[in-house]
Amino acid sequence: MLPRIVGAAAGGLLRPAGALAARGFAAAAAAAAGPHFCIVGSGPAGFYTADKLLKKFGEDARVDIVEALPTPFGLVRSGVAPDHADTKNVINQFTALAPGDVSNMSSSLLTASLFRFCCSQNVINQFTALAQDPRISFFGNVRVGRDLSLDELRSYYNAVVLSYGAESDRKLSCPGEDLPGVYSAREFVWWYNGHPAYRDLPIDLSRTHSVAIAGLGNVAVDCARVLLKSPDDLAKTDICSHAVEQLRKSAVREVHLLGRRGPVQAAFTPKELRELLSLEGVQIKMDPEVFKVSPACEAEMKATRMKKRVFDILSKALAEPKQGDKSLYLHFLRSPAEVIGKDGHAAEVKLEKTRLEPAGEGKDQKALGTGEFETIPADLVLKSIGFKSVGIPGVAFDSRRGVIPNQAGQVYTEDGSSFEPGLYVCGWLKRGPSGIIGTNLVDAEQTVDTMASTKDSFRPVEAQQPGAAGLRQLLNERGVQVVDFKGWQAVDAEEVRRGAAQGKPRDKLTSVDEMLQIAAAA
Ligand code: FAD
Ligand code: NAP
């Protein structure tokens, strides 16, 4: 639970009255002719939005990125699997946007190099390069809704883009869901990837024999692979040391992936599936019955090539069994009905068999319960059925879908009758928890296009000191230690230094206090 904001911090009380607002606008104009933008959240949506804003609004634009953690890059750091290092390299692109190294580079040169970066797989390099732009300031360790309210933040800027991702989870809504031993995949992933809030998750793999993972998406595949892969191989990645320690003493022999629909409807992608099915020493177990597909499933595969490829990969794995001392079960047409506990801890999952019901032209087939049940052993249960965003005070929120209601990125007012001036949204918070890193680039383009076409509705800056200077002063008065990009780079260098000693690309720091100490000394 986040600490509540009290006193002056609560209601935008720092916002000056009308006359001051006009003065603030004049001050803004004096400080920089272009607009002041703030982006909340430094994941792919935040960084891609920053890039697009600079391109769209020109040399005078200023973009500040406010991030709750001392570390940037969102799920590229805390989500992307440790053994998928190529994907993470997007971070270097973001870093190039931060002030410092390339401040002498002309804008067009920067754009050209960014283009090259974007074309490569190297996402971390791309974002890192982006963060070097002198027009960008990074405010790490600042949580909107805790350190300052959204209303307060908005008073310093002409426009604010919310891209703070998804920090909660969809619910299974079945009995036993809250038993000890049941976690969301988000919590498990944030544990092995070193998110500071989840490093102490009480995972004990030495007492875990069988793991059930609900959901058939790529996150479920990541979790299964980490649990089944050789710890020696994982130890060479940037996975956290505490996770390697657990994996080395793991007693896990079975992982069960649970899909409420069939092999044709699985959400994982062919490359990720193939990688999982080819893990050394892991037998693949599936019920051949579920591969008898209906005409509706045939039609789905005909319409979407990827579904056909996934189906073919699964069929091949069924036809060519391999040996191993560990087993991966893929249960299709099975919906988790209950987590059954023993001695107050998860022990089994009761599954209801389902059947597919065509839902009409162009609509997805639905899973319907058949009233037949079976149970599987599971002393660890991971719910990998989707992340979910949370609302913050000061902006409308659709709690059913877990998104901020918007039209092409422009945020609706609470009553939905008009738009919030100068307030926009991007990424998972805008469209829900799906899509790969690159999806957020296209999404950022849409939001920034909307901003350009609605720029006449941007708000004048109300605070006396606009943008970064004003925000820094407020946070300073409140005793918030801001980690700037230089501070993050000091943390980064320390992680790389510690990693080198262990033969891994980095050894992640997971304590905010330790990161703050290193950043302060930078
Ligand atoms: P996020 O990346 O979540 O960024 C949001 C940021 O906002 C975070 O840094 C967070 O700390 C910050 N924040 C939250 N609240 C606040 C607040 N109140 N104030 C300030 N800051 C705040 N895609 C791929 O292409 N390849 C992959 O291999 C891949 N692997 C994935 C693995 C997992 C486990 C998951 C969950 C997703 C993966 N994805 C992958 C998808 C990709 O990570 C997402 O599409 C992308 O990260 C979404 O970007 P975002 O900016 O909307 O959110
Ligand atoms: P996802 O792809 O949406 O998969 C969610 C899964 O949960 C689906 O199989 C869904 O089944 C199931 N599900 C949802 N609600 C359920 C319920 N109530 N009961 C049972 N099952 C339920 O989500 P994700 O795996 O969290 O991934 C999020 C995004 O990140 C995706 O776009 C993914 O591609 C991306 N990602 C990419 C990579 C990569 O590129 N390597 C890695 C990780 C994540 P139904 O289809 O039946 O709803």
From TrEMBL:
Top-level lineage group: Eukaryota
GO molecular function, one term: oxidoreductase activity
Entry's EC annotation: 1.18.1.6
Binding residues annotated for FAD, in chain numbering: 45, 67, 75, 144, 428, 435-437
Cofactor: FAD
UniProt: NADP(+) binding residues: 260-261, 272, 435
Domain FAD/NAD(P)-binding, first and last residues per copy: 37-304
Catalytic activity: 2 reduced [adrenodoxin] + NADP(+) + H(+) = 2 oxidized [adrenodoxin] + NADPH
Main location class: mitochondrion
Cell compartments where the protein resides: Mitochondrion
TM region positions: none
Key words of the record: FAD, Flavoprotein, Mitochondrion, NADP, Oxidoreductase
GO cellular component terms given for this protein: mitochondrion
InterPro entries, alphabetized: FAD/NAD-bd_sf (IPR036188), FAD/NAD-binding_dom (IPR023753), Ferredox_Rdtase (IPR055275), Ferredox_Rdtase_adrenod (IPR021163)
Enzyme class at the top of the EC tree: oxidoreductase
Family membership: Belongs to the ferredoxin--NADP reductase type 1 family.
Protein name as annotated: NADPH:adrenodoxin oxidoreductase, mitochondrial
Organism, as annotated: Chlorella ohadii
